[in-house]
Amino acid sequence: MNKVNSIFQLLVALFFGVALVYFLTYDRMWDRELTADLVVIWLLVGLVLFVLSWGISMYYASRLNGVIKKLELEKKELKALVFDMERGMKIGQVDRQIEGNSPASGEEKESSSIKPRKNFK
User: pLDDT over 90 for what percent of the chain?
Assistant: First the structure.
């Protein structure tokens, strides 16, 4: 689609360039005078080409914006999924820690060989 847009823009520029050269050299090429009807027809054809090129450009831009919106929505959904997965893992780890810290036989297990500190007054 981008190539079509570039081709139409090039076509419009080429048309107006040819029209400029044609009108500047009209009296030298033909012995007739330049009439307003001929100029109006050239300008109307140029206007149609320009509007067509502009319409294709706007269609291409709106299509790209639609693709961007879809990708942003997909990105947000993936972020939400990752957040939910991380939160689920954290909740699972906290549950395991709570289950691991609760004494099974009623006594606290001491995992370290360092004795607890005693406060003296």
Answer: 36
